[in-house]
Hints:
Blueprint: H1 4-13, E1 20-21, H2 26-30, E2 34-38, E3 44-51, H3 64-82, E4 87-89, E5 93-98, E6 105-116, E7 120-128, E8 134-146
Antiparallel strand pairs: 1-2, 2-3, 3-6, 4-8, 5-8, 6-7, 7-8
Amino acid sequence: xxxxxxxxxxxxxxxxxxxxxxxxxxxxxxxxxxxxxxxxxxxxxxxxxxxxxxxxxxxxxxxxxxxxxxxxxxxxxxxxxxxxxxxxxxxxxxxxxxxxxxxxxxxxxxxxxxxxxxxxxxxxxxxxxxxxxxxxxxxxxxxxxxxx
Length: 148
């Protein structure tokens, strides 16, 4: 299995090569996550998701926790992209704001690095529906650790 860092490097070196499925963790597979874009500078990524109807809650929209999970995955992915080999992000904070109801189907995430220091990475992410409307925003502070 290819690592997240290898996925990111592959996409950054070959822009336009098409989405790469993210299968390194169970939630990525369940959410139909794929890597759409990883910039060469290591500061921005885009993920695509395909939300199935089993994520719909009683009000007929996707559960807020699912949106938070997508934001978290995007934030972790951009942090991994920014860090050198052998370093990995963990999580100190995750702040989420739900802005609009989300239907089953495609969702796109954009995540950017605000600041990447030696010991902490700060990042922001946003989720969009197919019409380009922002569904949710998130930010995280992620302590950096040595990867096992």
